[in-house]
Design a protein that fits this description.
The complex is a heterodimer of chains A (469) and B (66). With 469 residues, chain A is of the alpha+beta class. Chain A has one domain: Amidase signature (AS) domain (Amidase signature (AS) enzymes, Alpha-Beta Complex). Helices cover 39% and strands 16% of the residues of chain A. In chain A, the strands form four sheets. Chain A has an eleven-stranded mixed β-sheet with strand order 1-3-2-8-10-9-16-17-13-11-12, sandwiched between helices. The longest helix of chain A is centred in the last third of the chain and has 26 residues, at 304-329. The radius of gyration of chain A is 20 Å and the shape is globular. Chain B is elongated, with a radius of gyration of 16 Å. In chain B, helix 1 (11-22) packs across helix 2. The chains are: A alpha+beta (469), B mainly alpha (66). The A-B interface holds A 200-202, 214-215, 244-245, 247, 303, 305-306, 308-310, 312-313, 316, 327-328, 331-332, 336, 339-341, 343-348, 352, 354-362, 364, 402, 405, 417-419, 442-443 and B 16, 19-20, 23, 25-28, 31, 34-39, 41-42, 44-46, 48-50, 52, 54-55, 58-66.
């Protein structure tokens, strides 16, 4: 075997699966190399809250046994991954980034998506740092520390799935699973320079994951290539009755047709809110993606700013409802960064929250009208590249605004109406990662994947491994 | 808002105190400042949502399925 330990740890999903299936490497060798890399890099990055070495080696052993015995080891055989701290993992309390959750009873079984990864041959490395209860865009957690951006430790990884995105960017696993309520996959994908998928609302079951906002929560994967993202997405799909919002649809795989898929021809750039609230680097990234996809049209979705406000209120209100008892009984145990917002959410008038829900419907209708003329819409994922940890303000459209509440202003309107998005990482002129949202009509993840593959083939969308130390 | 705050009070803190009392929510004095700050952040969103014009036929999208 000629590969170095570091080279083994850096394998992507497809590379790891091929190496294991062709018996060039064992799943155990990949798990051991990746665990050593985590041991070396997790200190400065703080991507993993818990590393599950024993479980990883046991799961790798099962994959190797299947290979030895001539059984199918699964489509993700030997690919190692981590999960955001809100997925149930059997035997662990599901902390969801909180002190309160960490003190709760251990999960009796894996969440449905974790179970699907195990059945597919995935090797779980551990659980990853997040903003408390997923309520944030910076992964600064009073209980578990801040996750640092592997491309520049002085900058934020984004959030709330920051540990997951940072781990993938640094090669601490071939992929990761996160969640996105208002942008929590797309924002860290943008800052850490990895591919991220927020599927259509209702596509992937959330059974066995800690909720935040029932009618805005999505689960989805991160990876370093479009092919890897597609492989994981295919293995995640399938209905589960444990999530009442999960729609009973057939699995619609994308990985098998990815190489042959032509990018959509009717592509437009989102104007208005999505242009005005984007900084120069974000606009340049969208322009580059648009040129590569032949998009010459611009579309304005009226009501985008209002849809963002609707998502803002629904989130605060639903989060307050979910945590009301603990907010009353043990408020001192919350992260101060989330406590104030959750308590404020409990004070919102009901009519405003109902109005917000009605506005979502109205904005959805506006988006559907746009999709009558186009198959794909482009928008920046974040208004700026990753800010520094201590940058309290950012400049957007000539205005100086607070950083933390505004990092998701371009993602919130889209998740508010459940559309599928692949966040593709580009580079600014200065070399910083920044992502573009490829937004497709409901249930047409395939269109976003085809466009992402085209941008990757053009060399525009790239996710090179970060070398943080 | 002015009806619930006394002279010298932070008006947002006073409003938060009044709303908490009306909704039977306990907010500890040491947390009042951060709740008021969150309320300030939320207010423009509340105003925008409230002032948006909608057709009476626009239904809420709770547990929304595209």
């Amino acid at each position: 075997m000629s590969q170095t330990q570091e080279g083994i740890a850096e394998l992507g999903v497809a590379e790891a699966v091929a190496a294991v299936r062709e018996r060039r490497l064992t799943a155990r060798a990949i798990a051991e190399a990746t665990l050593r890399r985590i041991e070396r890099l997790n200190g400065p990055l703080n991507a993993f809250r818990l590393v599950l070495a024993e479980r990883a080696l046991a799961e790798a052993g099962l994959v190797d046994a299947a290979i030895r015995e001539g059984r199918d080891p699964g489509p993700l055989a030997g690919a190692s991954y981590g999960v955001k701290d809100l997925f149930d993992v059997a035997g662990l309390a599901t902390a969801a980034g909180s002190k309160i959750g960490a003190e709760g009873p251990p999960a009796v079984r894996d969440g449905v998506l974790v179970d699907r990864m195990r059945r597919a041959g995935g090797v779980l490395l551990g659980v990853q740092v997040m903003d408390e209860y997923a309520y944030g865009f910076t992964t600064r957690n009073a209980h578990h520390g801040a996750t640092r951006n592997p491309h520049d430790l002085a900058r934020t990884a984004g959030g709330s799935s920051g540990g997951s995105a940072a781990a993938v960017a640094a090669g601490l696993g071939a992929f990761a699973l996160g969640s996105d309520t208002n942008g929590s996959i797309r924002v860290p994908a943008s800052f850490c320079g990895v591919f991220g998928l927020k599927p259509t609302f209702g596509r992937l079951p959330r059974s066995g994951s800690f909720p935040f906002v029932f009618d805005l929560d999505h689960l989805g994967p991160f990876a370093r290539s479009v092919a890897d993202l597609a492989l994981v997405y295919d293995a995640l799909q399938g209905h589960d009755g444990g999530d009442p919002a999960c729609v009973a649809r057939a699995v619609e795989p994308v990985s098998c047709s990815l190489a042959a898929a032509a990018p959509p021809s009717r592509v437009a750039v989102l104007d208005g809110w999505f242009h005005e609230m984007a900084g120069a680097e974000a606009r340049a990234a969208v322009a580059a993606a648009a040129a590569a996809l032949g998009a010459r049209s611009r579309v304005t979705l009226r009501g985008a700013e209002t849809a963002r406000s609707a998502a803002f209120l629904i989130t605060a209100s639903a989060g307050a409802n979910l945590h009301r008892r603990n907010l009353q009984d043990r408020p001192q145990d919350f992260d101060p960064a989330t406590r104030g917002r959750l308590l404020a959410g409990a004070l919102l008038p009901a009519d405003a929250v109902i109005q917000a829900q009605r506005l979502r419907r109205s904005f959805y209708d506006e988006a559907m009208a746009a999709f009558r003329g186009f198959d794909l819409l482009l928008a920046p994922a974040t208004p700026v590249p990753a800010p520094g940890h201590d940058e309290a303000t950012i400049r957007i459209g000539g205005d100086v605004v607070p950083t933390r509440p505004n990092l998701g202003l371009l993602t919130q309107p889209i998740s508010a109406i459940g559309l599928p998005v692949v966040a593709v990482p580009l580079r600014t002129a200065a070399g910083q990662p920044i992502a573009v949202q490829l937004i497709a009509p409901p249930w047409r993840e395939d269109l976003a994947f085809a466009a992402a593959a085209h941008l990757e083939a053009q060399g525009l969308a790239v996710s090179p491994l970060a070398a943080p130390c | 808002m002015s009806s619930v705050h006394a002279e010298g009070d932070d008006p947002d803190e006073a409003l938060v105190r009044a709303l908490a009392e009306a909704f039977d929510m306990t907010i500890r004095p040491e947390h009042l400042g951060e709740v008021a700050a969150a309320w300030r952040l939320m207010r423009p969103h509340l105003e925008r949502v409230r002032s948006a014009e909608l057709s009476p036929a626009a239904e809420p999208a709770a547990l929304f399925r595209p």
